[in-house]
Here is the input.
Amino acid sequence: MSGYADRPWLARYLPGMPADIDIPFASGLEMFEAAVAGGADRPLIHYFGRTITVGEADRAADALAAGMVAGGLRPGDRVAIDLQNMPQFILAVIAAWKVGCVVVTINPMNKERELTYVLQDSGATVLVTLQSLYGEVAKNVIADTDVRLVITTSELDYAVDIPPLLKVSQRQTFDATTDFVELVAAHDGERVDRPDLGPSDVAFLAYTSGTTGPPKGAMNTHQNVVFNAAVYRRWMSLTPDDVVLGVAPLFHITGLIAHLAVALLVPMPVVLAYRFDPVTVLDAIERYRPTFTVGAITVFIALMNDPSCAERDLTSLTKVYSGGAPIAPSVVERFEREIGPYIHNIYGLTETTSPSHGVPMGERAPVDPTSGALSVGVPVFNTVVRVVDDDGNDVAPGEIGEFVTAGPQIVAGYWNKPEETAHALPGGELHTGDVGFMDADGWYYVVDRKKDMIIASGYKVWPREVEDVLYQHPAVREAAVIGIPDEYRGETVKAFVSLRPGESATEADLIAFCKERMSAYKYPRSVELVEELPKTVTGKILRRELRQPG
Here is the structure.
């Protein structure tokens, strides 16, 4: 399938680039095996002074796979990974694939309620997590899940130089858990039988919040993963001489594909720094000289605003992309002026396994003169994107409609949710829920979201989930949540709350209540107490009226 056959104008944006690319391997495992065969001594991971080669990663993943099989893991099982950006994440992914398992990625900011849901919904039987997260969260929920083997690890493992960011001073051990490093050592040199993974097998279950129900596990297949890794390689002209700066969380689809998968495919090293911290990342850039990265625009704003940035040597960064949240053209201009590289826009969803659109490398995104929006680019290889009205009819260039996307990167569906799959993916086309338009030259612009989703620092927040938590507070009568503009995060979460008669609670009380029960990016940063919330005649709360100024 070609997205470019009927669009000859693209020749001027993609000079010398073919309209289509092949899916080079049958699975992510086969992709990694090719990297091993191509040079086991090449560096694969840089992490605080420690470099792990492709061959070392292969041997450690073999041992981890053998250890998990000894613990009862079987092909087709789900392996949940609840880690920050660290070598153990990549090793656990490869090990799970070596057994023929599905990787379930978990946001390490999840609290007990959120973690319980993902583990129960996915049916994961193995959990790989940080020692600190096990002690604070996981140990309290494991009994209510199908998890039979818990493997814990420390952020200190594999690190040589310990930065201030890593605030732990010693490793922890817990009863009823297995230590990651000890398990790898105990099974060193062992291998498991190679699984028969194919393109249609699920590589990742990446959970994404919907607008009409609880989080859904998007089934990113091996075809999805390999194809979009190949898209990154071709679109950004990546070679083994490049180095990836891993600023996006690895549990997020951007980190999984734009950092992990493409590093395995090229292959090229990926620089990991546990979690984003401006000083730590600036140190890593100077130390490891990365050339390529994809991150939320808040990453680049934070780097620019760090007091030490002006004295740093960031000249190695030449291939820079940003996605996940709207980007102001002024930020792109400032970054180019103060740091050097032009930030290319990119757009995609969990359900598109990262990119569906991108600004071609070396091109500059146009700005819509009416709205001031920066273009998210053009469809990537082999991808067709239609802009449709409410009846599903294609609209003319310049007219606003919903993006409907088809291509090899579109997920197979949602885990154990056939009705939601049928609704979002009729005929295999993804109805994205994002609305925008294509201009006369074929550039695409996102101008709004069809539903009420909030995007804070690139993370999607489902308003109803925040409202459900607020309703757990004994003083809350009604609650409605919206996104409001935020200079740094793009959007931030605001709640409107009415209290029950005779009850009392302050704005600070309600924020603290949510903070204890939700990931850091989800809880409301502001709460406004009101006597009544606006409603329809049928009693439905009108969020749109809450967005009106005044």
